[in-house]
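R.M. (postdoc): so does anyone remember the format we settled on? I'll just put the structure tokens first.
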């Protein structure tokens, strides 16, 4: 399967939906984002390596193909693969086997590959930047994802999906989205696509504080004017617009996130790193505090044993954005 579309159109969401609606559902769903990996480690990430195969390879390490055996491997930004990795990927797809970097043992795998790109692969083939044989192997079942601005009927479904996702991570119940909030989402042109929607819903849930998510909680920030969004003042009577900014140029949502971060730092400092005490100070449970620490990148404030090993069942992936 080859997913094509602009950056942020929800290609990973579609890939995961393909996985959970297939006979491979009970097996692993493994993600690889080419853009997040340095060129020198990409082959090792995909195919694994043997001990001593390169500087820093202190032990044998399985690659993403091995980890995804029996399940689905989602390879994002496939158009950015170096030519030497394209060759090895093609052979793996054809033969269903490969060798780890620095090894001679043949590893057999059964993996469904779902790849994604926002690039013009046909043009890259003409320019000699992408292998034509690999393209035809990947393009057996292409799916084109339109930008979110062209999929208005998807907005309520995606918004509720993200509400449920963040509620699950925070250990709380999903909140309802008010009709005027859904209407407000429909007025926006979504230059950042699904990834931007995910970020806006996360901020809105912080503002809503467990209550109904209304239009006043939607913070489109400084991009609202460029995206042709009507003024928010007409939406929430008696209140200021959620996207208003202060003298520092920060929106309301950004200021609230800063405030939350400072409160967490103060509570951790006061409790001398005691997670239970800090959670009591903040009036939240430990699972919620672990989630917020990860969200703000504050794990370093916790004792090593807690930060690494004891996550108290809190959360999973934070999101795309």
């Amino acid at each position: 399967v080859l997913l094509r579309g602009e950056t942020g159109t929800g290609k990973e969401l579609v890939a995961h939906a393909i996985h959970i609606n297939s006979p491979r559902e009970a097996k692993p769903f493994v993600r690889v984002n080419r853009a997040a990996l340095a060129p020198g480690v990409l082959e090792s990430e995909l195919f694994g390596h043997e001990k001593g195969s390169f500087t820093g390879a202190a032990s044998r390490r399985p690659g993403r193909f091995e980890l995804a055996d029996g399940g689905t491997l989602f390879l994002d930004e496939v158009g950015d693969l170096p030519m030497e990795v394209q060759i090895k990927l093609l052979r793996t797809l054809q033969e269903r086997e490969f060798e780890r970097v620095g090894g001679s043992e043949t590893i057999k795998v059964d993996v469904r590959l779902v790849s994604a790109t926002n690039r013009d692969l046909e043009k890259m083939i003409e320019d000699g930047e992408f292998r034509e044989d690999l393209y035809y192997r990947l393009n057996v079942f292409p799916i084109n994802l339109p930008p979110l601005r062209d999929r208005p009927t998807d907005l309520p479904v995606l918004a509720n999906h993200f509400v449920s996702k963040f509620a699950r991570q925070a250990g709380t119940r999903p909140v309802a989205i008010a009709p005027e909030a859904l209407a407000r989402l429909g007025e926006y042109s979504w230059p950042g696509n699904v990834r931007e929607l995910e970020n806006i819903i996360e901020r809105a849930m912080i503002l809503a504080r467990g209550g109904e998510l209304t239009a006043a909680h939607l913070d489109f920030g400084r991009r609202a004017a460029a995206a042709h969004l009507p003024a928010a003042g007409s939406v929430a009577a008696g209140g200021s617009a959620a996207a208003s900014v202060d003298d520092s140029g920060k929106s309301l949502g950004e200021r609230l996130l800063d405030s939350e971060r400072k409160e967490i730092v103060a509570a951790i400092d006061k409790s001398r790193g005691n997670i239970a005490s800090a959670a009591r100070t903040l009036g939240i449970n430990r699972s919620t505090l672990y989630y917020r620490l990860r969200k703000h990148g504050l794990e370093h404030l916790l004792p090593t044993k807690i930060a690494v090993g004891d996550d108290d069942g809190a959360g999973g992936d934070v999101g795309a954005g």
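R.M.: ...and that's the designed sequence above, right after the tokens. Also worth knowing: The CA atoms of residues 109 and 285 lie 42 Å apart. DSSP finds 13 helices and seven strands in the chain.
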